[in-house]
Amino acid sequence: MKNTDNLIELEESVRIYMYEVFASLLGDVFTQLNQAIKAQKQENGWTVSRNDWKIVQFTFGSVTFRQP
Q1: pLDDT for the residue 24
Q2: Do residues 30 and 54 touch, judged by C-beta distance below 8 A?
Q3: Do the Cβ atoms of 68 and 38 come closer than 8 Å?
Q4: pLDDT in tens, 21-46
Q5: Selection from 41, 40, 36, 67 nearest residue 54 by Cα
Q6: 63 and 56 in contact (C-beta within 8 Å)?
Q7: What are all long-range contacts of 37-44, with beta carbons under 8 Å and residues at least 24 apart?
Q8: d(CA 11, CA 55)
Q9: Quick one: which of 34, 31, 66 has its CA closest to 51?
Q10: pLDDT at 68
Q11: E runs forming strands in the chain
């Protein structure tokens, strides 16, 4: 972003950066939700058999999170 003299390029750089931030934050939210659901289900006697990475596509990019 520092190396651009063009306002349109700056705007595009900011948009891309914000999309990356949104995807990262949403990944953290999904991970926390999964942890809460997992804890609740384990109280009911369920067990976890897999800890896979999950990817969800949004208009702003891929959101990656781990199922704990």
Answers
A1: 95
A2: yes
A3: yes
A4: 999 999 999 999 999 999 999 999 99
A5: 67
A6: yes
A7: 38/67, 38/68
A8: 27
A9: 66
A10: 66
A11: 53-58, 61-66
